[in-house]
Amino acid sequence: MTQLYAQTPVKTVSAGNGIEYAYREVGEGDEAGVPLVLLMHFRGNLDYWDPALADALAQGRRVIAFDNTGVGGSSGSTPSTVAQMALDAIAFLDALELAQADILGFSLGSFVAQEIALTRPSLVRRLVLASAAPQGAPGMHGWAKWVIDSVGGPEVVPSLVLDVFYTRSAGSRSAGEKAMQRMFTRAEFDTPTTWQTRQAQYDAVTAWGIPNVALLQRVTAIQVPVFVAGGDSDPMILPRYSHLLAGLIPDAEIKIYPDAAHGFLFQHHEEFAGDVREFLDRA
After folding, report:
1. Cβ neighbour number for residue 271 with a 10 Å cutoff
2. What is the Cα–Cα distance from 73 to 192, expressed in whole angstroms?
3. How confident is the model over 190-224, as pLDDT tens digits?
4. Bridge-based pairing state of the strands 226-231 and 62-66
5. Distance of alpha carbon 152 from alpha carbon 147, whole angstroms
6. What is the pTM of this model?
7. What are the b/e assignments for 78-99, b being 16+ CB within 10 Å?
8. How far apart (Å, rounded) are the C-alpha atoms in residues 54 and 44?
9. Of 116, 159, 115, 122, nearest to 136 (Cα)?
């Protein structure tokens, strides 16, 4: 029987860049098949993936979640650029001897996923970009003050995180509370992220959002199939950026989920996982 994400122990692998990466792996896929690799959001570690989503994604495939350099249980210091985060992610994939992978990047992870696809195109078979924006989009230079105050303080306050990740509707809020309970009900916890990670990651997010219309052309070079997804009420990465990104990438499709904010993929985990599986399994 396949082990569930909440029960999966943290493993480590040493990479050629000298970093020891912490990761979890679930799923029923053939070792020779193309795995799905998950890239996490701002300040998140392995525990911040909803086990219900991870388990649903792992139906019929390997799913690998990892802490990038300096994050959670991985060694080193977190870099302050998306470009270096992408190189570090590639080093992790090389350490696992993966010739090709499907990649799902969420929020900051979606920025890193874009960069991986541009830096080493042969590594990526299909790309899922959740709560995503292209580099240089006008209006993306840092998050609204109430948003960064809610998720970027010295201490993570669950009720404030819920305000950003879910809408004010009873259904969305309830889904968020249930997702958070699933995330933090497990046998083994990852190492918490540090203030150094917070500062470096927000530097990377802010730099990614410096307005530069010329940089929007970069993603037109992504030639693999791409599924762009987001919530209709996301205050962190507004839906218009998902539409902009999908319009720039040649082979992209988009879906916006209703009554949902930044955490749409946890709120709508069954629907989103089904959409991702259908996209990845498509001939």
Report:
1. 14
2. 8
3. 999 999 999 999 999 999 999 999 999 999 999 99
4. unpaired
5. 8
6. 0.97
7. bbbebbbbbbbbbbbbbbbebe
8. 15
9. 115
pLDDT tens sequence across 124-153: 999 999 999 999 999 999 999 999 999 999
How far apart CA 132 and CA 138 sit, in angstroms, is 14
| Residue 226 bridge partners (DSSP) | 127, 252
Full DSSP string of 17-66: TS-EEEEEEEE---TTSPPEEEE--TT--GGGS-HHHHHHHTTTSEEEEE
Contacts of 26 (CB under 8 A, 6+ apart): 2, 3, 4, 5, 8, 54, 55, 58, 62, 63
CB 200 within 8 A of CB 193: no
For residue 20, the cross-strand partners are 14
What the block records as the tokens of 145 is: 């003050």
Angle at which helices 195-208 and 108-119 cross, to 10°: 60
| Angstrom distance (rounded) from CA 11 to CA 77 | 19
pLDDT in tens, 216-262: 999 999 999 999 999 999 999 999 999 999 999 999 999 999 999 99
**Neighbouring-strand partners of residue 23:** 11, 66
In the block, tokens 């082990």 appear at 3
Please say whether the dihedral angle defined by the alpha carbons of residues 259, 274, 89 and 194, taken in this order, is positive or negative.
positive
